[in-house]
Write a sequence for this structure.
């Protein structure tokens, strides 16, 4: 695996029937590329949480993934409302998910903390009323 | 214990048999919040929950759970069932509370 492989996924907003499809697809592809299971698990968790966030909060968006021999980089870009207080949003247990989302099992306030925990680097660029871009990198050991 | 052996044991009812009968049930995991399950359920876990929707199936696939056991008589909704069938996920059911159901399997796995 010497080249950089680039993948793009569209995430439909508020369509829970398809939430997780991008993560599942990526997971399958990484398995076929013989990426170590540890790295695959980290990528799957971080990407699923990000995907769900895009569905719940941001009316969907686009995910681009770059796979090189050293790392997997995921860029999740949306045109949602933006994050008012990133520091607060990063706190485990803090959630702004509405009640109907909570009844589905989401809204534990663990999305962003999980994304940080399972990636080697995470960066959030957000602007109120414009959107949010989350960039995450998982190193391949 | 494999998924097939668990099904054959009759401990729990069957909602969807799934496509991995030989998958080893390695651990018992119980939680209803998907982000916790996402982070804590390990590959091969039998996941006890009352959340019977498509997102439970998605998380089970991503974490490679061996099966889901819906407790307290919780139902799997229609889209959840379709997703379980598409993805070949084993979904079982019981009227028992989560702790009692999980303990039953835990004793069997000892």
């Amino acid at each position: 695996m010497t080249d950089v492989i680039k993948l793009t996924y569209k995430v439909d907003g508020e369509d829970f029937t398809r939430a997780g499809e991008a993560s599942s697809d990526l997971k399958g592809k990484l398995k076929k590329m013989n990426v170590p299971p540890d790295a695959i698990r980290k990528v799957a968790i971080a990407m699923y949480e990000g995907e769900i966030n895009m569905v719940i909060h941001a009316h969907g968006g686009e995910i681009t993934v770059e796979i090189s021999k050293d790392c997997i980089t995921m860029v999740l870009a949306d045109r949602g409302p933006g994050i008012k207080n990133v520091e607060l949003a990063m706190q485990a247990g803090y959630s702004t998910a509405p009640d109907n989302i909570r009844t589905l099992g989401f809204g534990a306030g663990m999305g962003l903390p999980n994304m940080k925990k399972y990636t080697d680097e995470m960066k959030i660029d957000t602007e109120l009323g414009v959107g949010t871009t989350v960039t995450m990198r998982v190193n391949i050991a | 214990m494999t998924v097939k052996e668990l099904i054959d044991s009759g401990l729990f009812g069957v909602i969807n048999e799934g496509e991995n009968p030989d998958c080893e049930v390695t651990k018992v995991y119980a939680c209803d919040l998907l982000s916790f399950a996402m982070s804590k359920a390990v590959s091969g876990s039998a996941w006890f929950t009352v959340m019977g929707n498509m997102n439970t199936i998605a998380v089970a696939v991503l974490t490679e759970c061996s099966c889901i056991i819906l407790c307290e008589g919780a139902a799997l909704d229609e889209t959840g069932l379709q997703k379980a069938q598409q993805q070949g996920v084993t979904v079982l059911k019981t009227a028992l509370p989560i702790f009692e159901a999980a303990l039953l399997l835990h004793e069997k796995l000892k």
